[in-house]
Amino acid sequence: MIRTVVRDSVRDALRDTPRAVAYLLSGVLVGAPLLVVLLVLGTAGLALAPLLVGLPLLAVAVLSGIPVGALERRRLDLTRALTRTPPPPDPHITPAEPGLAAWARLRLTERATWRELAYTLLLGFVLWPLDALVLFGALGMPGALIGAPAQLATTSSTGGDTRIAKLWLIDSYGQALLCTALGVVLLLALLWPLVRYARVRAALARLLLAPSEAETERRLGEVTRSRARLVAAFEAERRRIERDLHDGAQQRLVSLSMTLGLARLDAPPELAELLAAAHREADQVLLELRELIHGIHPQVLADYGLPDALADAADRSAVPVEVAVDLPRFAEPVESAAYFAVREALANIGRHSGAERARIDGRYTDGRLRVEVRDDGTGGADPARGTGLTGLADRLAVLDGTLSVHSPAGGPTVLSLEIPCPQR
């Protein structure tokens, strides 16, 4: 048992050593120039602060933690196999206004900025020298011992003394080979502590750079509000397209149909049949355009609300639908999301279910809109197979709503949606 544990530990250490060395070495390469930059910005900023020229330099020094934090998260992402954990997410939120001034104001008021600055100072003044010391102790000293024969051969040709790591004097190849053997043993013994240190070092970076619970909730709230704004913009664009088609293309087609009808009255016989065919085509295009406009945003939904809109959708369904809905008016996004979810469900019933009848139930209780669509089809519906319900579920999620589908093999299929919302 002990032998197995030791063997596994050695194997893991050998596997993770390149990642640990890369992580620590990159920390040294980042930290050394960072120390110089911090010293220059801090010294110049404090010296020139009475002249107000140094204030921008001090602001740059404070905000320098932001790119350093982003770089550290990137390094943690690249060494995910070493730490076995994902890197911390970006704690910063997107400014509500464009421009450098708005960005700087927001960043200076975020706790994440100051936490990243603290990590930057720690990296520049403490962590990278410690990383360099650990790398030298774990690799430099064993490497010097392993290279003892080569060093002895070099110094023998020049007539100098051979000292290993400036500490031990050797004068024979027997001693040099003994140093090599000692260096190999020391290297293997230090690999596991090296990997452990790299993991602890990465855990410290993750702890300091990870957003707090309040910042995570704030960021999630910002994402939710952003999604809500996108849905609102989508609805506004949908209504604009519906108005443009209704007031533009549809009116032109009506005018064209009337003109063709009038032209048929006085047309010679050889043109009457062609005009009649053109008249029928214009009427068909007009009918299809009206159906398209209705699908973009039905006027009955805007004028009379969700009950009448669901009844209209049931009348248009390819399967007979019974409607039992008693609902008040709600905000436009709520009514629109519920209507299109039900309409998608009815379209799926007509295309895939093989059902003979369907039923829509809707009620409003405890501040929640609940709508259920049920059919007597064969079941087996899977929202993940491109039925269109996945996008509708995302749309409901913006309103804190949920969409679920229960469809066992053999039926029945039941689609349920629930949206917390007030009456309008």
Can you tell me about this structure?
The chain is α+β, with helices and mostly antiparallel strands. The protein folds into 3 domains: 2-211, no CATH class; 225-296; 299-420, Histidine kinase-like ATPase, C-terminal domain (Heat Shock Protein 90, 2-Layer Sandwich), CATH 3.30.565. 71% of the residues lie in helices and 9% in strands. The relative contact order is 0.07. InterPro entries: HATPase_C_sf (IPR036890), Put_sensor_dom (IPR025828), Sensor_HK_TwoCompSys (IPR050482), Sig_transdc_His_kin_sub3_dim/P (IPR011712).
Index terms:
3 domains, histidine kinase, 71% helix, 424 residues, 7 strands, transmembrane, two-stranded antiparallel sheet, Heat Shock Protein 90, five-stranded mixed beta sheet, protein dimerization activity
- Poorly predicted regions: none
- Strand portion: 5-15%
Radius of gyration: 36 Å
Alpha-beta content class: alpha+beta
The number of distinct β-strands equals 7
| Secondary structure tally, helices | 14
| Anisotropy-based shape | elongated
- Main sheet record: 5 strands, mixed
Please tell me the total number of domains.
Answer: 3
Give the overall pLDDT as a whole number. 79
Helices and strands, in order, run as HHHHHHHEEHHHHHEHEEHEE
What is the topology, as strand order, of the major beta sheet? 3-4-5-7-6
Give the proportion of residues in helices.
over 70%
Distance between the termini: 70 Å
